[in-house]
């Protein structure tokens, strides 16, 4: 069963990890680093995707923290359906024979589709998680280390799934960058 993990970010300054945490906390640390070292260029990454995030650091520390603080969700008005399950209605386009097959399944089309999705996730989950981890690591790696020695070979090793060669190619990189890339390259637990 998938659990919703809190979204975290990691900030770097010149190859050194500044902090990891919720965006409002990371933004404050980046703001402080920018105040202490105005010529520095901090980089912030979404840990779930490996994509860089641009922060608006205008104003004081409180303004920056407030800008990136996520408000607690409010209770939505109760409506029809099965809200506790989080059911979402969307359109699916299938050929008539597919609809006929789905209609003949016990529980109808919705139950059959849910079972098919669960089975596909179970059977292909490791492959999907491995691909997502590789993509996540590559996004961050290309930004943090795209101009460092061994980047191209490290990229090849990452996409080939050759962990030992990846580690060897990153040996001369800053320790924090190496650790972060390896962290992102690990498939997320299901």
Characterization of this structure:
The chain has a four-stranded antiparallel sheet, sandwiched between helices. With 190 residues, the protein is an alpha+beta fold. It is flat, with a radius of gyration of 22 Å. The chain contains seven helices and four strands. Helices cover 51% and strands 9% of the residues. The model is unreliable at 1-5 (pLDDT under 50).
Count of separate DSSP helical elements: 7
Whole-number mean pLDDT: 88
Shape verdict: flat
Instruction: Return the string of H and E elements.
Output: EEHEEHHHHHH
Helical residues, percent: 40-55%
Q: Total number of β-strand segments?
A: 4
Distance between the termini: 7 Å
Radius of gyration over all CA atoms, rounded: 22 Å
Poorly predicted regions are 1-5
Name the strands of the widest sheet in spatial order: 2-1-3-4
The fraction of residues in strands falls at 5-15%
Quick take:
Helices cover 51% and strands 9% of the residues. The protein has 190 residues and is of the alpha+beta class.
Question: Which helices and strands occur, and which strands form pairs?
Answer:
Elements: E1 9-13, E2 16-21, H1 23-36, E3 43-46, E4 52-53, H2 61-67, H3 96-104, H4 108-145, H5 151-160, H6 163-169, H7 175-185
Antiparallel strand pairs: 1-2, 1-3, 3-4
Helix pairs in contact: 1-2, 3-4, 4-5, 4-7, 5-6
């Amino acid at each position: 069963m998938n659990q919703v993990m809190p979204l975290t970010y990691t900030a770097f300054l010149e190859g050194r990890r500044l902090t990891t945490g919720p965006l409002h906390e990371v933004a404050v640390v980046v703001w402080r680093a920018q105040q202490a070292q105005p010529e520095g260029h901090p980089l912030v990454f979404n840990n779930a995707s490996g994509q860089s995030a641009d922060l608006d650091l205008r104003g004081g520390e409180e303004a920056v923290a407030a800008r990136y603080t996520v408000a607690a969700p409010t209770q939505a008005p109760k409506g029809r359906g099965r809200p506790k399950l989080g059911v979402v209605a969307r359109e699916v386009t299938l050929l008539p024979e597919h609809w006929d097959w789905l209609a003949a399944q016990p529980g109808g089309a919705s139950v059959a589709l849910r079972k098919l999705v669960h089975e596909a996730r179970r059977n292909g989950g490791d492959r999907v998680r491995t691909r997502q981890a590789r993509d996540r690591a590559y996004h961050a790696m290309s930004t943090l280390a795209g101009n460092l020695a061994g980047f191209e070979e490290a990229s090849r090793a990452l996409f080939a799934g050759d962990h030992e060669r990846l580690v060897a190619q990153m040996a001369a990189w800053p320790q924090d960058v190496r650790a972060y890339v390896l962290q992102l390259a690990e498939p997320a637990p299901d």
